[in-house]
Amino acid sequence: MSSVGIVGGGIGGLTLALALREAGVTDVTVYERYAAPESLGAGVQLSPNATKVLHALGLKGPLADVAFYPQAVQLRTWRTGYLIAARPLGHFSEARYGAPYYHVHRGDLHGLLLEAVTGRGIAVRTGRVCTGAGEDDRGPWADFEDGRERHDVIVGCDGIHSAVRDSLFEAAAPVFTGHVAWRGMVAAADLPEKLIPPTATAWLGPKRHFVHYYVRRGELVNFVGVVETDRRPGESWREPGERAELAEDFAGWHPMIHHLIDAAGEVYRWALYDRAPLPTWRRGCVTLLGDACHPMRPYLAQGAGMAIEDAWVLSRLLERWEDQPASGLEEYERYRLPRTARVQARSRAQGEEFHLSERRAVWTRNFKLALGSRYLPEIAMKQFDWLHGYDCVRGFE
């Protein structure tokens, strides 16, 4: 194997480029549809399973410089703000899992990845819109609006609307979940002092929930609100919404939430769709990574984390199978498909748990969460060991 073409210059694609270079693959090219990198105003939660990979790629210092270090996760009731349960992050989580839990601005994370990629001499070709990919008797290819490119391996990192995926497999129609997500960003300086605690806070209510946390060293507060509704906006994170409509969706909720909504500038909304897990991710020496093959509902905050894990594992298996890349891609799928399918299923279940509305079901959920948080904290923490304690770096040393 002498060259890898990466379709998509997002978090997954750039992490893969760095991991491949670190594994000794010198001929790597990233193809990105946009002419200039976009700095989406969205937050990303990086749990230890993801930060371990970024640290291994030499990004420990740059990541710490742009991130926020949360102290806990809190679950609160939607109207009164009663603390149902809390789980420690900060030093406790870092000691348990060997790496920090961070909140970052998506644009900051993308920027430091891009700087590392270009700084290491990896080619990034912008303005390249992919229309499909495949393999013929001459090997793998990727088609773009302005021509065809060939590499020994093609990896589709082109997101939930992946052109590579749709050209490899019969495109399955996405199913609307009935959930619509709102997002916004607020300058911390525009909020009352100490209004927002240094935590990831989720407010749970009937058929909806609201999450907020600091990003960019605590300078900004990111929020996401998810509601169950028949209204169906587009599936793009870039679709503007009306702040008055957002406020109406959370009418009667705790005043802290409305402080955030009132202080927000632009707000955006998008419909959440489900896609069935693929039975396979590859055709020959063309494969998929991240949202292109396993799009996640956001309720476990693992979309970026799974793509980052994918990148490390794929790079190590291509290194291991240097002369037989198809075998490396087969092994990559064997390692990654069960874990990502489990995270997809657990994310879906967590969303359902957050949105319970029947009184007895809500009481039972809150009682179990409170019992674990207050009286059985070790057991409560263990339920996340499979997720946050996963170490693909050590697993492929």
Strand portion: 25-35%
Range of helix content? 25-40%
| Count of DSSP-assigned helices | 14
Largest sheet: 8 strands, mixed
Which value, in Å, is the CA radius of gyration? Answer: 21 Å
Query: Mean of residue pLDDT?
Result: 93
Question: What general form does the structure show?
Answer: globular
The total strand number stands at 18
Spatial strand order of the main sheet: 5-4-13-14-15-12-17-16
Q: What is the terminal separation in angstroms?
A: 20 Å
Specify the oligomeric state: single chain
Query: Based on helices, strands and strand pairing, what is the structural class?
Result: alpha/beta
Low-confidence stretches: none
Explained architecture:
Strands 5-4-13-14-15-12-17-16 form an eight-stranded mixed β-sheet. A five-stranded parallel β-sheet has the order 7-2-1-11-18. The chain has a three-stranded antiparallel β-sheet with strand order 8-9-10. Helix 1 (11-22) packs parallel to helix 5 (106-119) and helix 2 packs across helix 9. With 397 residues, the chain is of the alpha/beta class. The protein is globular, with a radius of gyration of 21 Å. The chain is 38% helix and 26% strand.
